[in-house]
């Protein structure tokens, strides 16, 4: 997760096909976190998941397709949006979930690997963009509700506000190595809320 928190390792009920998919995606996430995208190998994923190699090749075929499915699964498993009744409360809840995900040793390494791969692989980039579009869309209503309550000016772009919350946290993860703690999350939420209240995220022409 990020942009809302991801529950790693969660297994949903289902038949053998669902169990195989869960095992393979869990194994792919582990391999990504440990070795990065360049070392991700479908045969190794099959071994980790304890399923037949032909099953993995037949269902996914290539590493980018497998990673795209992993990102879809992560979006599906992401924790639901929190409603606190205030803009700052909602944005802080979002920021804390992002922070907890990125600070997690496995999840943080996984996101680093996928983001790095997305810079040079178009299929991975599309999958990553779809993941974040899903997560931002799920949290956008907290901004829309703030506009309805009069906390924000009309025409505020909810997607831009939500992106502004997580941007400093990803910058710390990828660029500065700064502390990814609750205080950092709270600062990111407060800054995004202040900018939104000041009208900095009002759509052009509104």
Number of domain units: 2
Approximately what portion of the residues adopt beta-strand conformation?
under 5%
DSSP strand tally: 0
CATH level-3 fold name of the largest domain: Tetracycline Repressor, domain 2
Helix-residue proportion:
55-70%
- Give the mean pLDDT: 89
Distance between the amino and carboxyl termini: 32 Å
Summarize the structure.
The protein is mainly α and 206 residues long. It is built from 9 helices and no strands.
What are its keywords?
single chain; 206 residues; mainly alpha; Arc Repressor Mutant, subunit A; Tetracycline Repressor, domain 2; 2 domains; elongated; HTH_TetR; DNA-binding; TetR/AcrR family transcriptional regulator; TetR_C
Account of the protein in words:
This protein has 206 residues and is mostly helical. Helices cover 70% and strands 0% of the residues. It folds into two domains: 16-74, Homeodomain-like (Arc Repressor Mutant, subunit A, Orthogonal Bundle); 80-197, Tetracycline Repressor, domain 2 (Orthogonal Bundle). The chain contains nine helices and no strands. Helix 1 crosses helix 2 (42-49), helix 5 (87-103) packs parallel to helix 8 and helix 5 (87-103) packs antiparallel against helix 9. The relative contact order is 0.15. Residues 41-60 bind DNA.
Secondary structure topology:
Blueprint lengths: L15 H20 L6 H8 L3 H7 L3 H15 L9 H17 L1 H14 L3 H28 L8 H19 L5 H16 L9
Helix pairs in contact: 1-2, 1-4, 1-6, 2-3, 4-7, 5-7, 5-8, 5-9, 6-7, 7-8, 8-9
């Amino acid at each position: 997760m990020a942009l809302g928190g991801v529950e790693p390792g969660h297994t949903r009920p289902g038949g053998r096909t669902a169990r195989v998919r869960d095992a393979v995606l869990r194994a792919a996430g582990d391999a990504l976190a440990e070795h990065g995208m360049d070392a991700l190998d479908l045969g190794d994923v099959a071994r980790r998941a304890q399923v037949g190699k032909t099953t993995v090749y037949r269902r996914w075929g290539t590493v980018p397709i497998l990673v795209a499915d992993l990102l879809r699964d992560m979006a599906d498993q992401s924790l639901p949006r929190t409603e606190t009744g205030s803009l700052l409360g909602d944005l802080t809840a979002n920021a804390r979930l992002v922070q907890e995900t990125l600070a997690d040793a496995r999840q943080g390494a996984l996101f680093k690997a996928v983001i790095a791969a997305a810079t040079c692989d178009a299929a991975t980039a599309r999958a990553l963009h779809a993941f974040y579009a899903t997560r931002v869309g799920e949290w956008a209503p907290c901004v829309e509700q703030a506009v309805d309550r009069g906390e924000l000016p009309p025409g505020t772009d909810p997607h831009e506000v939500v992106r502004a919350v997580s941007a400093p946290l990803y910058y710390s993860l990828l660029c500065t190595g700064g502390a990814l703690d609750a205080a950092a999350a709270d600062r990111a939420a407060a800054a995004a809320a202040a900018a939104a209240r000041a009208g900095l995220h009002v759509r052009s022409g509104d």
